[in-house]
Amino acid sequence: MDNIMNSRAYKAAREKAQALLEKLTLTEKIGQLSQFGNSIYSSDEKKYEDHFREGKVGSFLTLRGAEKTNRIQRDLMNMQRTPIPAIFADDVIHGYRTTFPTPIAQSCSWDPELTARCSAAAAKEAYAGGLKWTFGPMVDIARDPRWGRIMEGFGEDTYLCSRFAAAAVRGFQGDGDAPGKDHLIACMKHYAAYGACVGGRDYNTADVSPETLHEVYLPPFKAGIDAGAATVMSAFNDVNGVPATANRYLLTDVLRDRFGFKGFVVSDAGAVGELINHGFAEDPKDAVCKAFGAGVDMLMAGDMYNDNLPALLEEGKVTMEEIDRSVLSILTVKYLLGLFDEPFVDPDGEKVFFCDEHLALSREAGAQCAVLLENDGILPLKGVENIALTGPLTHPCGKAHLLGGWCGIADPERTVTIEEGLKAAIPDANIDVIPGATFVHMEPEEIAAIAARAARSDVIIAAVGEENGMAGEAGSKSDLELCGSQEELVLALCATGRPVVCLVSAGRPLVLSKFKGKVAALLNIWQPGTEAGNSVADLLTGKVNPSGHLTTSFPYTTGQVPIYYNHPSTGRPADGHWRFESKYMDCPIGPLYPFGYGRSYTTFEYSDISLSSDKIAPDGELKVRLTVTNTGEYDGAAVVQLYVRDLVASRVRPVKELKGFKKLFLTRGASSRVELSLPASGLAFVDSKLEWVVEPGRFKLWVAEDSADERCGFDFTVTNS
Ligand code: NOJ
Questions:
Q1: Which of 455, 536, 554, 557 is exposed most, by the fewest CB atoms within 10 A?
Q2: Phi/psi at 388 (nearest 5 deg)?
Q3: Residue 154: C-alpha distances to residues 163, 418, 552, 597, 704 (Å)
């Protein structure tokens, strides 16, 4: 596949890098492998001057702004014996100044192009702010919503996540031959299996079988590499006993030799030093030896490489070839970025922050990513005169929470609140904003007072959920229920008899089972970004018809997790025949809302479904064709989903797996013919030799509205040849 890493520009960059490499001293070479944070520049003048002079700095993280990065770049290049520009890096995850929905939310759009557009816009702003490299996308599969970093990725499904990984890489890096102006190089993280942390506890061990590792956790990285991702970040966790940051099998045998990755690997922050805590390395020198030897080219962050690699080289524990190989891959990316020709950015470029185009995209994306979970017909709101608006997310400090975590230097003050959005969208309505609701415990009297006042309106809108710091890094939770007294508040509002539209804004799936049958509507808005209030108002008023679908299962109760739709088949499926089945005594086996689920204000019908054949060769392709009709009262977008089950195989297969999808917009009453391709290669799984194989045999296929929908099932066979 064509991408920047196999372009002509890449080859030219590598030649230039090779020529430069030959002129560098050992100290300068190792300096290219070292990244530094803010502290080196601001806290210890002498240290930074020495480092700059000696060429001990290759990259900076979290230094931002055109003026600042230009100044530092100038100092660095003036002081170095051999001027080599630094790459400025940061976590540009879902925006830079303008904030877009969190990645988990973006995946619910089932529109990878939307992610490509949001990533491109984020890259444009970040580039204007002096950055050249983002630590994103995070492509970790997350099957456990207790893990707070679920918000940074694209959900529980490998196929879907792979599609979004490739789109995000393209969006950040651009489609051209080289990333250049307005783009950032991407860094896929966290390699690998970080999302498999046991118990959903961040930084915890990942105990995954080699087959699951290759089948579930690694393909999104492969997809990003095929899309041209120039860098990869090694994870904090150990994988089956070997820390990812010292894992030669993962970083070299698989990433480089098997997947063909040609860029460079950066460690996660401090992960090399943490090899000592893992009990995997004796001391810093041993840690460097193990991490560098495994394939970590660049250290985030500090002097461990500068301080230890020279001695390790002298002792023969690392070789000059290894050092040169790492330096070469970093210099190649610097040339590819055009950094040597243009190490500075134009300070006027910052005008792009919060530009109309990006705000419009934030508004559009915020609406496309929300998932309508319940609606008794109250939505879209029509002719409502008196609305009560309450819940902690309507509080002025809700502005930051509506952006979500990892929003860099976003400006929470720019966030459009739900109140502002609604007032602009329905200027004639009386909107009574009722204060007092919090994320923590509320006294029954406080709840009763809010409910009594809300009861005076025709409709109650309650915005509940999480603070932005509750998810993201180190944001693990043991309980997925709404925190504080929010559940009691919503139930008290429902008890008024007034229809309650409950908006849930969070970084993870929450347990919402008590609201079923009580709230009139339930809209999971995630953390929509700068234009949050406008996106929400567009949905509530019907200007935009909800079309988001879940990319993670929403559990009934926390005790069900990890819960994911594509679990392997058990010998005792829970089909209600007898006691001895794989189920819980005290709650349903399935989730409250399944993967793929999402409602609309309209309805869709699938008809004339056909398969191009009921047999395909192991190298063949099946075409699934159907007509989708918008049978309801509103224009809207359908998400046609294709699931497959391998009925008998040499390894136990998942009960079903997503293998294709298509989102299409249809005006009211309109129909469209849709075609989905299913290459037989998509039916492959990893065998005990860790090779991908397509086994002949019988398969079941569903064309579905979500992962629990089995109305349209078909049988087909993969033949022997
Ligand atoms: C640690 C996080 O795990 C990683 O995702 C992030 O990119 C780095 N810190 C840098 O901020």
A1: 455
A2: -100, 135
A3: 9, 25, 9, 15, 20
Is 268 a catalytic site residue? Answer: yes
User: What is the distance in A from the centroid of ligand 1 to the CA of 268?
Assistant: 6
Q: Are 81 and 55 in contact (CB under 8 A)?
A: yes
Task: Check whether 506 has a pLDDT greater than 90.
Answer: yes
What digits encode the pLDDT tens for the residues 269-292? Answer: 999 999 999 999 999 999 999 999
Structural class in CATH, domain 371-547? alpha beta
Residue nearest to atom 7 of ligand 1 (CA): 135
CATH superfamily of this structure's domain 604-718: Immunoglobulins (2.60.40.10)
* Residue-wise pLDDT tens digits, 695-706: 999 999 999 999
In this prediction, residue 494 carries a pLDDT of: 98
Q: Is the CB of 152 under 6 A from ligand 1?
A: no
Q: What gap in Å lies between CA 595 and CA 449, rounded to an integer? A: 37
CA of 270 to the centre of ligand 1 (A): 9
**So where are the chain's domains?**
4-19+29-348, 371-547, 604-718
- 538 in Cβ contact with 364 (< 8 Å): no
Of 11-15, 42-46, 215-219, 308-312, the poorest mean pLDDT is in 42-46
Residue type, 300: M
Read off the pLDDT band of 178 (50, 70, 90).
confident
Domains 371-547 and 604-718 share a fold: no
Query: Catalytic: which of 144, 268, 635, 706?
Result: 268
Report field, pTM of the whole predicted structure over 0.85: yes
List C-alpha distances in Å: 437 to 74, 431, 507, 704.
50, 16, 20, 39
- Reported as half-sphere exposure (CB side, CA atoms, 13 A), residue 11 has a value of 3
Per the CATH hierarchy, to which homologous superfamily does domain 4-19+29-348 belong? Answer: Glycoside hydrolase, family 3, N-terminal domain (3.20.20.300)
Q: How far is residue 146 from each of residues 447, 479, 559, measured CA to CA in Å? A: 28, 7, 11
The residue nearest atom 11 of ligand 1, judged by CA position, is: 91
The pLDDT tens digits for 202-227 are: 999 999 999 999 999 999 999 999 99
Classified as helix, coil or strand, 658 is: strand
